Every structure is written in structure tokens, then in C-alpha cells.
Amino acid sequence: MVPDNELLKDHLSNLGWRLLMTDTRLIVPFGTEGQCLNTSLDVIHSFSIPEIGIKDDAVPGRIKSVNFKATKPGLFQGPSAEMMK
């Protein structure tokens, strides 16, 4: 991963970078089970948290679910696993 201070503004616009952060958090207590419901309004997106074994595609017009168990404590990112431009 490239550190923020090494990314130049013109490189970001040429490469089509997108912001991967969200406005909200998903908090799951350690050792509990959870379920994510995924859908999309436009194209196929992919939601993943590899550290706890979650990866699922969000498909337009469908609601998909993925069940998981929080087996590791920590703060994890959930970036898209699909290459988009």
C-alpha cells in the first residue's frame, strides 16, 4: 500500500481512486455471530473482511446474506474486493 504522503493529487485523478471509508461502523462483540445483508443499486460490489472470513458479492436486484462469527478481536477494514473504475 502506498502511504498517503506519497500519493500526488494528479495521480489520484488519473488512476480513478475512490474513497473506501464509510460513514458508519459495524461493531460485533468478540465471540458472537452476525449476519450481513448485501445488495447494490448499480453494479456488482464485493464486501470483505478477510480477518474474520467474510467475502460476499452485492448484486443489483438481489439481497444476499452472509453469516459469520467474530473469532478475532480487533478493528478491521472492509474494503471492496472488486476492481472498479
TrEMBL record:
Cofactor(s) listed: Cu cation
Q: Which GO terms describe its biological process?
A: ATP synthesis coupled electron transport
Where's it found, cell-wise?
Answer: Mitochondrion membrane
Give the record's family classification.
Answer: Belongs to the cytochrome c oxidase subunit 2 family.
Domain Cytochrome oxidase subunit II copper A binding: start-end pairs: 1-85
Enzyme kind, highest EC tier: translocase
Q: Which UniProt keywords apply?
A: Copper, Magnesium, Membrane, Mitochondrion
**Which gene is transcribed and translated to give this protein?**
coii
Q: Which reaction does it catalyse?
A: 4 Fe(II)-[cytochrome c] + O2 + 8 H(+)(in) = 4 Fe(III)-[cytochrome c] + 2 H2O + 4 H(+)(out)
Q: Record's Gene Ontology CC terms?
A: mitochondrial membrane
EC number(s): the record gives: 7.1.1.9
Membrane topology, from the record = Multi-pass membrane protein
Q: Which InterPro entries match?
A: CcO_II, CcO_II-like_C, Cupredoxin
Q: What is this protein called?
A: cytochrome-c oxidase
- Tell me the Pfam families matching this sequence: COX2
UniProt KW Membrane keyword: yes
Q: Does the keyword Kinase apply?
A: no
GO MF terms listed in the record are: copper ion binding; cytochrome-c oxidase activity
